[in-house]
Amino acid sequence: MKTIKKSTNQIFAILIIAIFSNISAIAQDKVTLTDPEVASVAVVANQIDISYAEIALKKSKNKEILAFAKRMVTDHSAVIKQAVALVTKLSVTPKDNAVSQSLNEGAEKTKKMLNNASAKDFDKLYIDNEVAYHKAVIGAIEGLLIPESDNKELKGLLEDVLPALQAHLKHAEMVQSKL
Amino acid sequence: MKSFIKSIVVLSILVFGINNTICSQNSPTTHTVLIKKMKFIPEVLKVKKGDTVVWINKDFYPHDVSKYDDNAWHSSPLDKGESWSKIVTETEEYYCSLHVVMRGQIILTN
Ligand SMILES: [Cu+2]
Predict the structure, then answer these.
(1) A153 touches chain B (CB under 8 A)
(2) What is each CA distance from A19 to A40, A97, A125, B101, in whole angstroms?
(3) Which CATH code of 1.20.1260.10, 3.30.460.40, 3.90.440.10, 1.10.3210.10 fits the domain covering A2-178?
(4) Across the interface, do B38 and A174 touch by the CB < 8 Å criterion?
(5) A50, A86, B24, B66: which has the fewest C-beta neighbours closer than 10 Å?
């Protein structure tokens, strides 16, 4: 039983590193993004966290995990709504790109892992991923999306999202420490 | 006689005016706390007993105002632009029960 748990954790650690290195590799390659591409990455990053939360709402029975997941759905939906309102106002259509695709590929693996997790392991796997994912997204917004935005309002929206992501990260770490 | 009445009138206006000022100094006032970028601003607010505090949500995420950490009193979730008020009778610690890391304090002063 211990070995199974250990190997699950190892696989999980590898997945997290893969997501991180994807993002940092992209940042290091100095990929340039147009504003429609920045908008796409922002929307995709928020959609991914909603999709993780939806799995948690189905699979978890832990009150704090459920409250956290519900918050993720509400807040990340609010960000998407703001982003859509802004791109509509600016007449910009979000454009798919290498970063969005890489985020989606990583998310597919994580969703599979979460969906296959046993009831016993799920809460920890979910919240560990939330901590890592929020760190990665904060890093990507600060290191890639904000520097790559030309439009002031788009830059402003990304800057406004950071305090929420930081609050989510602290909240996730609190839940994590209680598990 | 006329000047006497005049001075009475002037005096009463003065007294009334001063009284009014004293009254307004003692009467409860209203303070505003903004909820912005995941923070209560100001985080620590000093008020007198009986003062009213109004919280206004400026974020596009819903927030609430709840007694830390048992929710003995609490607002409902506030959408952007919505506000909630409370008359303060004691020193209070509060938080947002939706974003549990958001904290604030109201301190009574004499
Ligand atoms: Cu809140």
Answers:
(1) no
(2) 18, 16, 15, 26
(3) 1.20.1260.10
(4) no
(5) B24
